[in-house]
Amino acid sequence: MKLEIQNVSKRYKGNTYGLRDFSITIEKGILGLLGPNGAGKSTLLKMIATVSKPTDGRILLNKNNIVKDANYMRGQLGFLPQDFGVYPNLNAYEFLEYMAAMKGVGGKNLRDRISGLLEGLNLLDAAKKPIGGYSGGMKQRVGIAQALLNQPKVVIFDEPTVGLDPEERVRFRNLISDLANDCIVVLSSHIVSDIDTIADQVAVMKNGSLLTKGDQETIIALVSHKVFETILNKEQLSIFKTNHLVVSTTRKAGTLKVRYITDSPVENSIQQQANLEDAYLYLTKNN
Amino acid sequence: MQLFFTIIKSDYLQRTRSYPFLVTLCLTLAIAYTFVPAPNASYSTIRIAGYVGYYNAAWFGYVTAIMSSVFLSLVGFYLVNNGIKTAIQTKVGHIVAAAPISNFRYLASKMVSNFLVLSTLLLTVLTMSILLFFLYNEGYTFELIHFLKPYAFIALPALFFVSVLAVVFEVFLGKYSILQNCMYFFLFASLLVSPPKNEMQFALDVFGSKIVMHEMEETVQTILQTEENIDMSIGYVIGNTENNQKFHFDGIEFSTYFIVSRLLWFLLGIGIIIAIAPFFHRFDTKEKLSLKKHVNKVKSQKQLKDIVLSKLPKTVVNYAILPLIRTELLLLVRKGRKWLWLFNGVGMVLLGVLPLQMAHQFVLPILWFLQVGRLSDLTTKETDNNVHYFSFTAYKPIRRALFSQLMAGVLLMLFLASPLLIRLAVGLHFDSLAIVVLAGLFIVVFAGFAGIVSKGKKLFELLFFMLTYASLNGLSFADYYGGLAHGPFYLQLLFGVVLILGSGCFIIRRYHLKMI
After folding, report:
1. Among residues B266, B288, B310, which one ends one of the domains?
2. Is B378 found in the same domain as B241?
3. What residues of A are in contact with residue B306 (Cβ under 8 Å)?
4. Does A92 touch chain B (CB under 8 A)?
5. Which residue of A53, A102, A178 is in closest CB contact with B391?
6. CA distance B32 to A193
7. Which B residues in the span 159-188 are in contact with A, Cβ-Cβ below 8 Å?
8. B296 touches chain A (CB under 8 A)
9. Does residue B143 sit within a domain?
10. pLDDT at B89 over 50
11. What is the mean predicted confidence (pLDDT) over A223-231?
12. Structural domain includes residue B309
């Protein structure tokens, strides 16, 4: 299983780029895609999912160019878009059966598979009520269920944890880990903690380009020995921010505990264990 | 005040910066082109006892202004009666509800925005009428005043009042769009029928057309030296144009009384908005209208069980299209209010019991027109419901998904027509039977085509309405369901149109998917 994105660009009117000369190779396992708003994550995922076409470049799945033969990808794809809707007059069973028919899957086990997915996603009780009455989180779980209907080999989740409560997030992570055993899973998120616990590989994007890709240790290594904490008062913070990359601040007894990234720490700073969030901020702010 | 104008400007830009509005503008241009027929055309729009005016500036200005006033008052209502609905759908309404803007200001901004949209269309018609003057005029000089005066005193107040009515209907009947449309149509028709003859009655004519028609009538009466009522027609009348005679029409000097009355329509409109402002729901619609839904609100279960994907039953590849058609049919049937099916039931019974000709000629088109809400988003509901990411990445989205949408529509139309179809089959009227089946196909592919081309519902809703209205009034070119007598090639013609529209659906959808 190999997904190759080769020199892909997406150009819009006015010569602006959503993605520019982007290349990456993705193999079995979970790839976490991180990047600020407008980085091009959704643009990339839509092109992999064959929703939109690149202006230049090729996307190959097992050497098949899916830009030309979209149905090759569609037959083995599970896609959860960032912003999707449902038909409010259908119940969860009807909607998922419809999605299965769209994907070209069926058989006598379909109903059981749908029940299994709905049960696992905590929707079984509500499954025969119109989806129009569901909460945002429940609709999101219906979206996750539809992505898994056809035993997909390539699964794309664009911001999948939006609307899920903490417990559901944990269950979703477990689900993805199970999925990754024999699939390519691409997962985009703003929330670094959604990625760092499960992703085998992490790619960081900004302004339509790839900043880096690698396993978490390699990426975190970019900021090892550069993360510090110090205590400041409120007045000092704004000047401090102009000279250092501040990751977070915590208010404590009238002072501020500041976590920052630097090559030359200020006096009384204590070095900290670097994490993926530090590396992500370091990469996106410094590029 | 600055904020008020900003809201109006944003609302206007939001409505006009869209592909469907561009289509509407093009359609308006095309229709405006027909307001003053070409000298050798086989139809007329305004004719008084076989007389039409010489093609001078006054004739072009007044005729197009009257036609705009009447035509845009009808069609325009359906174009603009979704301003508040859009705010609900986009959830912008919730932000508005929490903002300090008063009900009156908000409704007034919608009213002005409606008026600006309709005025943009009116400006398009005015431009076309001036172009037509230079194209067709019979040696007369161009006088701009004969264009500006009727547009200002006849069309603009009418459109302003329509903008007000659109807001009123949305405030009180926001959730019942079919009821809104039907009620407005009857209101419009009732406003058209009274024949005023004096200044007081002219002042009460919201469309402002009757004073002009009266002036034209008097001119022709003078020519014919009669004081008896003579035939007048406003609207499209086919044929009998070769015997038309000409008369000079030089416009009207509007009395102060009439001008003041037209200004009063503006004031009345503002007064109505002030009066209805306290009744505006301020986007608190769900709580008011669907209390029952809240009681039955879906609750998620508490017992959690982990999902193990590898243990779930496996599905197999199955490209059968029947499940798709079944769900599409389900979506069509469940669309709209359940009680509307009562009307469908009554319509089907009438198709079965009324005299065959009446059932075919009148009941069938009305019954089918009642499905306008179901059919209008037949091919756009994926985008409307934001399901297009799933549909467009489905396996063979055109050959399977689009086909099943159209097929479900056809099945619904044929089911509704089934009592008539059975009667035609039993009576061995196979020609009529074939026409009704083709007509069902036609209306579905027409809905699909209009939706795909305009990427919205309005175009089909408008055209279907006009088609039904024209066909019920006996205009044979609009008789798509074979209710009137036709020549030998009617069936072939209908088949050809179905083929073209059907192919258009597939070709344009394919093109759109390629262009994503």
Report:
1. B288
2. no
3. 120, 171, 174
4. no
5. A102
6. 61
7. none
8. yes
9. yes
10. yes
11. 94
12. no
- A64-65 and A16-27 beta bridge pairing: unpaired
Decide if B307 contacts B344 (C-beta within 8 A): no
Task: Note whether residue B304 is domain-resident.
Answer: no
Same domain membership, residue B376 and residue B271: no
Dist CA B413 CA B352 (whole Å): 15
Structure-block tokens of residue A104: 């070209």
Number of structural domains in chain B: 2
Contact list, A104 vs chain B (CB under 8 Å): 317-319, 394-396, 400
CA separation (Å) from B409 to A79, B53, B415, B442, B443?
28, 46, 10, 10, 9
Which residue of chain B is at minimal alpha-carbon distance from A76? B395
Contact A88 B381 (CB under 8 A): no
The answer on B110 and B184 residing in a single domain is: yes
| B389 interface with A at CB cutoff 8 Å | yes
Q: Mutual orientation of helices B322-334 and B403-426 as an angle, nearest 10°? A: 80
Do B400 and A71 lie within an 8 Å CB cutoff?
Answer: no
From first CA to last CA, the distance across chain A in angstroms is 32
* A102–B394 CB contact, under 8 Å: yes
Range of the domain at B443: 322-515
Asked if B380 and B481 sit in the same domain, the reply is yes
Residue ranges of B 390-429 with Cβ closer than 8 A to chain A: 390-397, 400-401
Cβ neighbors of A167 (< 8 A, separation 6 or more) are: B304
Q: What is the DSSP string of B457-495?
A: SHHHHHHHHHHHHHHHTT-GGG-TT--S---TTHHHHHH
CA atoms within a 13 Å half-sphere pointing along the CA-CB vector of B268: 16
What pLDDT score does B472 carry? 82
Tell me: pLDDT of B278 over 90: yes
Mean of the pLDDT values across residues B471-491? Answer: 81
Q: Are A192 and A34 in contact (CB under 8 A)?
A: yes
Claim to verify: residue B280 and residue B414 sit in the same structural domain = no
- Grade residue B277 by pLDDT with cuts at 50, 70 and 90: very high
pLDDT 10s digits, A44-73: 999 999 988 899 999 999 999 999 998 899
Q: Of B288, B310, B331, at which residue does a domain stop?
A: B288
Residues of B in contact with A129 (CB under 8 A): 296, 298
- Residue B300: list chain A partners with CB under 8 A: 122-123, 125-126, 135, 138
**B301 is a domain residue:** no
Question: Do B357 and B228 belong together in one domain?
Answer: no
Same domain, B140 and B260: yes
Say what angle helices B430-454 and B19-33 make with each other, to 10 degrees.
Answer: 120
* Nearest one of B68, B107, B78 to B271, comparing CA atoms: B107
pLDDT given for residue B478 in this prediction: 83
Instruction: Please give the residue of chain B at the shortest CA–CA distance from A181.
Output: B310
A89 touches chain B (CB under 8 A): yes
Angstrom distances, CA of residue B190 to CA of A281, B38, B193, B195: 68, 31, 5, 11
Express each pLDDT in B204-259 by its tens digit: 899 998 899 989 999 999 998 888 888 888 777 777 777 788 999 999 999 999 99
Question: What span, in angstroms and rounded, lies between the C-alpha atoms of A109 and A120?
Answer: 16
Name the DSSP letter for residue B361: I
Question: What CA–CA distance (Å, rounded) separates A41 from B94?
Answer: 30
Domains and CATH numbers, chain A: 2-215 (3.40.50.300), 221-286 (no CATH)
Same domain, B338 and B275: no
Chain B hits for A171, CB-CB cut-off 8 Å, are 304, 306-307
For residue range A101-146, what is the model confidence (pLDDT) as tens digits?
A: 888 888 889 999 999 999 988 899 899 999 989 998 899 999 999 9
Position B295 confidence tier, pLDDT thresholds 50, 70, 90: very low
CB contact under 8 A, B390 and A178: no
